[in-house]
Specification:
InterPro entries: AKR, AKR2_Oxidoreductase, NAD(P)_OxRdtase_dom_sf, NADP_OxRdtase_dom. It is an enzyme of class 1 (oxidoreductase). GO terms for molecular function: oxidoreductase activity. Keywords: Oxidoreductase. This protein has 327 residues and is an alpha/beta fold. The chain has one domain (3-202, 265-304): NADP-dependent oxidoreductase domain (TIM Barrel, Alpha-Beta Barrel). It is 37% helix and 12% strand. Strands 3-4-5-6-7-8-9-10 form an eight-stranded parallel sheet, with helices on one face. It has a two-stranded antiparallel ribbon with strand order 1-2. α2 packs across α3 (60-68).
Length: 327
């Protein structure tokens, strides 16, 4: 395993870490037994950082992490998120009373005395600009309830703003071959501010595995079904904002990246890790095979400068015109 600094937090995190949305819910059926085996395997392979949220399975993902990391609080770090269990447009949802309650509930489920990285979970931009929530997070940090805090954002503009907030030490962003906009301004500013960058949805909800066809179907409780067009939350969270059929077509045009890199999935995450400002990628998983496959990313070769230019031009010319929602 290789490790990178998580900005100025003082934490060093595994380059390939893992998100737990899939084992919590909203990605179709998952089994706790498989989830726990997968978490234990990942830790055994050197993974020391996991991302979760209080709404993943109504807190169930946090409970699974508590079981998997029992007795390892010092060397296995957990980031969790808050605010989406309530009305994200209501100012009271970000009051000290509300945020403190979210924090205490997560601490109880995680069975920890402090949260390593506590993140605002894709709050509306107006809430982030108003800034009161950061004052609450400063208090929780002073009290030792949280060690560091950051923001999970939807757009580059939101990320740029959050980097201007003194206490924000990390950003979680959507970043992949179908969502490259952060390269231009956001990643350089994060490096300047010494802020960590966590990359979620590195495979664009699975499109960048190259395993889907236009006729692929998803379970009713899978967000790739019920949010395919942004029906329930930000459209960018599903297929990077691309219409599914167009995403499959574009993925087919990128099949060349797998040459010499085992698979499209590993190649796609290698591209992300080739950006030096990135702290880690946090792909999801449901079973041990997926954990091992994702960890295989560390063994594939980087992209050449010519390949990087080719991929960026492909993004600007072929992908951007079809992305829905703000990037």
């Amino acid at each position: 395993m290789k490790y990178r600094k998580l900005g100025r937090t003082g934490l060093e995190v595994s380059e390939v870490s893992f998100g737990t949305w899939a084992i919590g819910g909203d990605w179709g059926t998952s089994k706790d037994e498989d989830a726990l085996k997968s978490l234990q395997l990942a830790i055994g392979e050197g993974v020391n950082f996991f991302d979760t949220a209080d709404v993943y399975g109504g807190g169930h993902a946090e409970e699974l992490l508590a079981k998997a990391t029992k007795g390892r609080h010092d060397d296995v770090h957990i980031a969790t998120k808050f605010c989406r269990a309530g009305n994200i447009h209501d100012a009271d949802n970000y009051s000290e009373k509300a945020v403190r309650a979210y924090c205490e509930q997560s601490l109880k489920r995680l069975q920890r005395e402090a949260i390593d990285l506590y993140q605002v979970h894709c709050a509306p931009f107006e809430v982030l600009k108003q800034g009161a929530v950061f004052e609450v997070l400063d208090k929780l940090k002073d009290e030792g309830k949280i060690r560091h805090y950051g923001v999970s954002v939807e757009t580059v503009e939101e990320g740029l703003h959050c980097l201007s907030v003194p206490g924000v030490e990390a950003l979680q962003i959507i970043f992949n071959l179908f969502r490259q906009q952060a390269v231009e301004q956001l990643l350089p500013l994060a490096a300047e501010k010494d802020a960590g960058i966590l990359v979620r949805l590195p495979l664009a909800s699975g499109l960048l595995t190259g395993k889907f066809s236009k006729s692929s179907q998803f379970e009713a409780n899978d967000h790739r079904n019920f949010n395919a067009n942004g029906e329930q939350f930000n459209v960018g969270e599903t297929f990077a904002g691309l219409p599914f059929a167009k995403g499959v077509e574009l993925a087919e045009q990128l099949s060349w990246i797998a040459e010499g890199r085992h698979s499209m999935a590993r190649a796609s995450m290698r591209w992300i890790l080739d950006q030096p400002q990135v702290s880690c990628v946090i792909p999801g998983f449901k079973n041990t095979d997926q954990v091992l496959d994702n960890l295989g990313t560390l063994d594939v070769p980087s992209f050449s400068d010519d390949e990087l230019k080719k991929l960026y031009h492909f993004y600007r010319q072929e992908v951007v015109p079809h992305v829905r929602g703000e990037i």
